[in-house]
Amino acid sequence: MTTQTKTLTTQEVAARFHELAQQEKWFEIQDELFAENVRSVDPPDSPYMGYAEGKAPVRKKGEDFVGRIEGFHGASTTEPVVASNHFVVRRKMDVTVKPHGRIQFDEIMLYEVKDGQIVLEQFFY
């Protein structure tokens, strides 16, 4: 007996993303929805984070940021807006981060989906 896994649509990926984001389960999002060749892109002049390519380096980028958080003061993520093979969410986050101090992020997070997996996350703030 062979088992075939169904490729998720962009809408299904976005729905699962939203479900996990509402629980602040960002590493679960990476584990479950990111492709092996995923790219993570912050603004070129960002003092907080930069560019990473590949599932493990993207994970490390996230872990490094989380490791610098000294205080979590709140966050929210909107429902995704889906268009073709992309979706976007707005994320607000209020955190104290070494060495930057307290930061209020208000960002747009863009995701590209290919073959049922996220292949790109790009942040605009």
Describe this structure in words.
It is a single chain. This protein has a single domain (10-124), classed as Nuclear Transport Factor 2, Chain: A, CATH 3.10.450. The protein is built from three helices and seven strands. It has helices at residues 10-21, 26-33, 55-67; strands at 34-41, 51-53, 69-77, 81-83, 86-97, 101-114, 117-124. Strands 1, 2, 3, 4, 5, 6 and 7 form a seven-stranded mixed β-sheet that branches. A hairpin with a 3-residue loop joins strand 5 (86-97) and strand 6 (101-114). Helix 1 packs antiparallel against helix 2 (26-33). It is globular, with a radius of gyration of 15 Å.
DSSP summary, beta strand count: 7
Helices and strands: which structural class?
Answer: alpha+beta
Under the CATH scheme, which architecture would be assigned? Roll
CATH class: Alpha Beta
What is the third-level CATH name, the topology? Nuclear Transport Factor 2, Chain: A
When the domains are counted, the total is 1
Shape: globular
Largest sheet: 7 strands, mixed
Order of helices and strands: HHEEHEEEEE
In DSSP terms (H or I, runs of 4 or more residues), the helix count works out at: 3
Beta-strand proportion: over 45%
Low-confidence stretches: none
Helix content: 25-40%
Précis, in short:
The protein has helices spanning 10-21, 26-33, 55-67; strands spanning 34-41, 51-53, 69-77, 81-83, 86-97, 101-114, 117-124. With 125 residues, it is of the alpha+beta class.
